[in-house]
Amino acid sequence: MEIDILDQQDKFSVTPSLEHLLEEIFRSCWQIEARDGSPEVSIVLCDDDFIRGLNRDYRQIDQPTDVLSFPQEAPSADDPPGLSSPLDDTVVLGDVIISLERAMEQAEAYGHSFEREVGYLLAHGLLHLLGMDHDTEEDRQSMREKEEKILAQVQLVR
Predict the structure, then answer these.
(1) What is the pTM (predicted TM-score) of this model?
(2) What is the architecture, at CATH level 2, of domain 2-153?
């Protein structure tokens, strides 16, 4: 299991405890989803300007958002999400981009901690990398249940 955390902003301190929390959420998500292999993911922590540029360039939405996921392509439609290495059991999932500015605003609006909001955004992004989506109400509820299960496992309850 490998997680690369890249801090691309200067508005919030990315502490070792926050990095550890992100790693625990990643482990929890992989365990709850009962996936095989040794996963790799990159997490980019950024500000609103950074994520706005990505949102504009990749989704044609010229405004900041809270989280974006960029999955690696599966070798074929029948394969699970992620790019598996033919040489070992590595599964490269892709990238999760989180705006820490947006996370702080949302934490204050929802009345919970910054850590819980960042954790929620990471869980949400990881589930997207694993092939989940929220296009229908049933999918949205299923995804929300998994997000809450992941957060509960790392003691980030409301």
Answers:
(1) 0.90
(2) 3-Layer(aba) Sandwich (3.40)
